[in-house]
Design goal:
Layout: H1 2-26, E1 32-33, H2 37-42, E2 53-54, H3 62-66, E3 72-81, H4 88-94, E4 102-112, E5 118-121, H5 123-126, E6 131-135, E7 141-150, E8 155-160, E9 181-186, E10 199-204
Antiparallel strand pairs: 1-2, 3-4, 3-6, 4-5, 5-8, 6-7, 7-8, 9-10
Length: 218
């Protein structure tokens, strides 16, 4: 009887251990793998695709960041500013230099949207600019032409003479959902003194379809 009860106890203990291992290890979901690069192209506009491999419970932005930083550029502008009228107060401190024309520089970010050099930026970055330069993430510099701009939406379109540029594809904003993770990539600080390149940060979609009443009625 002692050997019989001992055998039953060991069998029961083994069954419990096997059940625990099965539920915790064997049925555990494996990491999502994308082995074929064609799958990435097919799902390029899907917000859920952020990495070649995403571990369970981990958000990985490495793939999305690597695919976007090279298409974000630094925009540098120059313009000449002439005071419209003399001001005795400022002339007292700055002398005749106040009333003389002086150069003003502006900085901002832009996004390459086509391989042949069309770039979207903000209107306030290039407004009244006489010269516009674009610096890529690989430190190449191009003269840019202002194709068009719209102050009401603060959008401007630039064009550089180049080919084979990295660019960012448009996604479907109708498929965007509240709470989804998004990346923000910018390059506004690449000056002669500070050779900084694109930077990446992350957040979530907080709202959609907000009307800011900035579009003209027509």
């Amino acid at each position: 009887m002692k050997y019989l009860f001992g055998s039953l106890f060991m069998a029961l203990l083994g069954a419990c251990i096997a059940l625990f291992a099965y539920t915790k290890i064997i049925e555990r979901p494996s990491a999502t793998q994308i082995k074929d690069s064609s799958q990435v192209e097919a799902r390029n506009a899907e917000a859920l695709l952020t990495s070649y491999a995403m571990q369970e419970g981990q958000i990985d932005f490495t793939y999305a960041a690597e695919q976007t930083v090279h298409a974000v550029v630094h925009v540098r502008t120059k313009s000449t500013v002439t005071p419209q009228a003399s001001n005795p107060f400022w002339e007292y401190f700055y002398g005749d230099n106040y009333s003389r024309p002086r150069e003003r520089q502006g900085y901002g970010s832009g996004v390459i949207i086509t391989a042949d050099g069309y770039i979207v930026t903000n209107n306030h970055v290039i407004e009244d600019a006489e010269n516009v330069e674009v610096k890529l993430n690989d430190n190449r510099v191009f003269e840019a032409e202002i194709v068009g701009h719209d102050p009401s939406t603060d959008i401007a379109l630039l064009k550089v003479t180049a080919s084979g540029l990295p660019y960012i594809k448009y996604g479907d904003s109708d498929r965007l959902r509240l709470g989804e993770w998004v990346l923000a990539v910018g390059n506004p600080f690449s000056t002669n003194e500070f050779n900084l390149t694109s930077t990446v940060t992350a957040g979530i979609v907080s709202a959609k379809g907000r009307n800011l009443n900035i579009l003209d009625s027509d």
